[in-house]
Amino acid sequence: MAVSTRSTIEKELTEAAAAPNRMTATEHHDSHDEHGPVAHGLFSPPTGVTGTDSRSGVTMIEAINQALAEEMERDPRVFLLGEDIGPRGGVFGATKGLIERFGPERVLDTPIAESGFTGFGIGAALLGSVPVIEIQFADFIYSALEQIFSEMAKMHYRSNGDARLRMVVRAPIGGGIHGGFYHSQSPENLFVVPGLKVAMPATPSDAKGMLKAAIRDPNPVIFFEHKRLYRSLREPMPEDDVLVPLGMARIARPGTTLSVITYGATVHEAIKAAGSLMADGIDAEVLDLRSLQPYDKPAILASIAKTHRALVVHEASKTNGFGAELAAFIADEAFMELDAPVRRLAAPDSPAMPYNHLLESAYLVDAAKIAAAMRELAAF
Amino acid sequence: MATLTAIAPLTDHRTVGLSDDDAIQIFDVMLRTREIDERMWALNRQGKAPFVVPCRGQEAAQAGAAWALDPKKDWLFPHYRDLGLALWFGFTTNELFLMFFAKGTDSISGGRQMTHHFGSQARHVASISAPLGTQIPHAVGGAYAMRLQGTTGAVTITCFGEGTSSKGDFYEACSLAALHKLPVIFLCENNGYAISVPMSKQSPVPNVADRAAAFGFPGVIVDGTDPFATYAAVRDARARGVAGEGPTLIEAKMYRLLPHTSDDNDMTYRTREEVRQAEEGEPLRRIVEYMQARGLLSEDEIAARRARIRKEIAAAVAAAQSAPEADPVTVADRVYAPVEEGI
Description:
Chain A is an alpha/beta fold. Chain A has 13 helices and twelve strands. By secondary structure, chain B is α/β, with parallel strands linked by helices.
């Protein structure tokens, strides 16, 4: 019985491997697995994103770990809560070593109850503690939306400024890591509402400086960390206590032909695309927004005043994505500056990122797609 | 409707350790709550205010619970029917009418929130919303913050109806409170109806208190029209919490004598006769009879107290009606706290 079952499985495995569009082992696993047998490619995404990649610097996940440790050291009111953040150190390793250093009361493993522990954090913040909540994947944040929208976003306004919630909700976001529908989503647009701040860094140093600023901010901050960037680039990290203020964009690549306005992992795709077009005389500027709420309107206007062409790029799907807001803003405020219509490049309007690697690639906005959109815009 | 013990005599206040003076003060909280509630209802019916959430029938449980709490140390995470507890935590009659008329000088939200959405950091009353049950995990996190900050001798209390006890936040909060043995009192004011849906259609088990067993902490049922019985239950729950023994769920059974809100028509789902029967055992009537029968307050003394409260209410209504309106230019103010204050 056992022998015949095994031979059946082996036969079917051979057939499956020979079938079209199979996912290869190298695509699914990578060499940076630091998390033992439980983890696989999902939790330690592949390298290869262009940027300040070097073996000597600090990765984004390490930068986040440093920011958490430094802020916990600096302010005894700061505490962490979330699923698997204790001895496990978080499924991505963001809280690695922190329970050993700060103890289980300040690094609190929670039951799987996103609404309950988000509400718990709000109550703690009302009494003067500073919770930093980890939602394991942004895909799982929806259980907590009532607490985030009805409570967190409105607390300060509804109390006429009396109550404030100094707290952060961290959530790994984005795809391209073979995470399928429910480990790849980019729901950042939902959180762009009055009363919340939304941050989404693209580099390790920004992740560190912005997370530190978010923890010190007297307002609730939703802090999205792109999973594909966690270990795919390294950057030297200053020793000092560097804060990167929320709400301020940075020019990730200066240019003159057109402005790519983006955030998160697509910043690096856009830089790569821009490099590939230099030979064709297209010199694109890449503006990394870094914050989505509030977002840096003067920086967008300044870039467009220089290039007169705007391409808005994000990984989330197109209709009613955050790019719709950006395009509307540019049309409202910079119409007379424009030499071409504002263009948007985003994922297709399908419900989520598929698991199969070819479908996933088809869904993802990458450097080649950005380069094609840049050419079109430059030629208009 | 909630199963009320057939109009039994109130618990003797002395058997739960209360002095005569304590009993009189508890009576005062109930009377003031009833008078303010009735005045607000009447003002709404006269077309002078758009909305009201009544608490008629819930005064005893609130006043009894109040007497067991220390507003200087404890924190209240209320629901919108907790007028009596709001009074105990320090809101003045004047403030409550500014809230009711949503005036610019409303201390709770400057007229931004609907009436009865209490909140004041200085008074240890957490700001609340209208979606139900969201405040329950807040109370648990508040208790956790007390522990992190080394605050002892204090509890958080959160109140909600039996309807709210169907929501996930209730269960998730109970679980977190029990896991960490936090000093939290879950006070369910079971008034028999979730707007129109009776308890029998909300819950497969007859008592909300039964659910505490799933989390390993006590679930206590009290007659919520008996202030002294409720006092004793909340006092014991507070002692447990302060001693590090963890949370308690108290289900105070009572009856909502008025519609859910001023926008509800309760005659679409219950009969006049049912309400009339409940009125016979309603808490104000019971406490008035008790005070007189025990010789604690005479009919004349009660009338004098009522007259004094009514005079204060009349002044508060007049003051609130002539108070300045909210300034429209402030509509987008105080969305965010200034960053420099945080860093």
